[in-house]
Amino acid sequence: MRHDFLGHVTVVIVGGTGDLARKYLWQGFFQLYADQVGKGHTFSFYGGALSTTEKGTPLLFDILKELACPAELSVERCALVKDQFLHLSKYHQLKTTEDYENLSQQIKQQLGQEGIIEAGRLFYLSVPAFAYADIAEKINNTCRPPSEAWLRVVLEKPFGHNLYSAQALDKKLSGQLKEEEMYRIDHYLGKQVVSKILPFRKENKKLLDPIWNKHHIERIEIVLKETLDAKGRIQFYDQYGVIRDVLQNHLTEVMTLMLMNLPANLSNSEEILQNKLNFLASLQHVDNSNAVVGQYQAYNGEVQEELNKTKDYFSLTPTFAGVVIHVDNAQYEGIPIFMTSGKALDERVSYARVLFKSNVFCVQDPNNVQCKSKQIIFYLGHGTLQYPAILLSKNLFKPELVSSGDWKEVTEYKDVNVLGLPLSDYYIQSPVTPREAYCELISHVVFGRKDSFISAEGLLASWEFWTPLLEGLSRVFPRVYPGGVDNGNLLNFQLKGHQVAFSHEAVVNVINPGAEDNFQVMQGKYRSSEMVSAWAQELVERLASDLLLAAEEAIREEGQFHLALSGGSSPVALLLDERCVPHTESGSNFRSIHDLLLQHIRIPYFNIHPMPVHLTQRLCVEEDGGPTLYEKEIKKHVNGSSFHYILLGVGQDGHTASLFQDAKLENDEENLVILTESPNKPHQRMSLTFTAINRARRVGVLIMGKSKHELVSQLSRIKGESSKYPITKVQPKSGTLIWYIDYDALLG
């Protein structure tokens, strides 16, 4: 037991009548008191908040009266201990500097009257993070104990929302409090299974060391699934989202404990911290290509309601994320770490799993234990098992008990499966008595154990890893999912090389946009390709910018830029196809592009190549050989007949260029240009073929207007090609396809 604990401890919960205090903190401090009462230590407890004493006191005692008895206490003993605890607890308004000064005077007066030695003061800040710096200053200036006693200030996450805000918060706090006085709490580190990850690895080191590496581990999964939504927490949640709320802290801590180098001494918090920092420094950079994000369907309505937003407002905050992480060291190189969390999923469960490679092939008896998966699972609770446990496949080895006093081996098995195996196929260890994470961590604070808390260096190292991904995802559309079992396979994701993508196409991979002033241009995925979306004006500006960048790149590298434009009825008329009318007539695609574009830019006319639809005073007669002439022009001017950029539109029937549903295109695999027939007048057309289009370095597809909304929805449901929708045949062989879809077309 720590010597610095002897004497009187004053506990102050700032925000003592709030939701966290009601649910967890007062129960945790009651458990602490029940554990320590009669052992020579004394306490006083204060619940502080902004309300006056008259308003705050009844609120506090409503909470205290509901406290549950610890399991180890008899009913009679609990009644006595609870009565003592209530007498030691009082409300104190904490709003101004004067309030904190009054509290300090009250503490000193009590100690003087009772003639007891002060061990220390514990302030638990159960308040929004923006209030930390101000409260820390008040504590520092008015409530410090004498030099021989300790001061400990507990801080709840979030500790910033990116690296820069975390650095700023740390700078403010470190100006008022010493690092050893700050206890940044992550309640996951108080979960009984998480707290035993390092001891489990230590106890089984001889058997784990040979297999805890890239030669034996196939993959690692770290999962936190929730069935609840964010309703009631929107004001906080919409600023942070699932990655900041769960992955950056809880799941990163679990990953670190699983894969960091084992410290020689598990009680040495400095060694544990250094090993954590070394591991975080070895993580490979993650960006958009390593992650997928989603948002449950009802979330945006909840945002509008709780934040008083208009019906045309929408949020890009993800409520689901899947990330694949790799470690850049010799031990774990190449092992994918699948990390995922989400709200409104099909079950509530949290676990970390190490899945090992198998070198056994079973010709017969596949149910033999040696033929089954080899895995170690740190099961945090809920799900099919319902209790926290460490499970190890029997075809690996029999592990040492992680802690002989407070853990047990489970030998009675329920008829359930855990991650593919029946319980009887595992060696299982579980805590003798379940304890809440906050109860564990509150005890650690009082005893000065810092190994279960987040250091400033560890916090900043974690934010340094996650911030680039968060910045990259800030303007990416999350995939919308219905919630619960209806999600089906919509959120399944897969790893291809180091690229992460959803395994299945979404029907429409976006959410409802809002007023035009909310944002400019957003990015997402559509039919497995990149998609750019915005209101019409911003979309055209973005398209023009992309075209300019492509032109500059081509000219810089090759000295020339070849662009093919399609005609059509899009709001901006853009020539890789032509109607069989003279170029001087208004129905001509060339005439439209000339009037709207070409006459306004400085480009030599000999660099413009309209399609030869009008030869020998006839329009699109096959014997005149117009397609052959144009194909020769392409081969003459365009290297490898591969345009740098082709810009297409799409008709409401799914045609593109002048390639229609009933066109007989299968015999034109070698031709670059053909004559086609349109169902609309003028019926005769000339067009580039899909062969020519799919040779392009870049292909852009522009879809605009509410009249195209149904088409956009239909196309999103189609996998691969469909003869009904010719646009689906646009699949550049080695180039890039980008969809430019305005919000009217996207969402109707």
From TrEMBL:
Q: Which residues form the Glucose-6-phosphate dehydrogenase NAD-binding domain?
A: 12-194
Instruction: Tell me which PROSITE patterns the record gives.
Output: G6P_DEHYDROGENASE (PS00069)
Which is one GO molecular function term here? glucose-6-phosphate dehydrogenase activity
State a single Pfam family of this protein: G6PD_C
Pathway where this protein functions: Carbohydrate degradation; pentose phosphate pathway
> What are its GO biological-process terms?
glucose metabolic process; pentose-phosphate shunt, oxidative branch
Q: What is the lineage of its organism?
A: Eukaryota, Metazoa, Chordata, Craniata, Vertebrata
Name of protein: Hexose-6-phosphate dehydrogenase (glucose 1-dehydrogenase)
The record, for PANTHER family, names:
GDH_6PGL ENDOPLASMIC BIFUNCTIONAL PROTEIN (PTHR23429:SF7), GLUCOSE-6-PHOSPHATE 1-DEHYDROGENASE G6PD (PTHR23429)
- Give GO cellular component annotations, separated by semicolons: endoplasmic reticulum
Species this protein is from: Cyprinus carpio (Common carp)
Concerning NCBIfam families, the annotation shows: pgl (TIGR01198)
Asked whether the keyword Phosphoprotein is assigned, the reply is: no
Q: Does the keyword NADP apply?
A: yes
In this chain the Glucosamine/galactosamine-6-phosphate isomerase domain maps to 575-739
Give the Glucose-6-phosphate dehydrogenase C-terminal domain ranges. Answer: 200-488
- Xref: Gene3D superfamilies: 3.40.50.1360, Dihydrodipicolinate Reductase, domain 2 (3.30.360.10), NAD(P)-binding Rossmann-like Domain (3.40.50.720)
Q: Print the keywords alphabetically.
A: Carbohydrate metabolism, Glucose metabolism, NADP, Oxidoreductase
- What InterPro entries would the database entry show? 6-phosphogluconolactonase_DevB (IPR005900), G6P_DH (IPR001282), G6P_DH_AS (IPR019796), G6P_DH_C (IPR022675), G6P_DH_NAD-bd (IPR022674), Glc/Gal-6P_isomerase (IPR006148), NAD(P)-bd_dom_sf (IPR036291), NagB/RpiA_transferase-like (IPR037171)
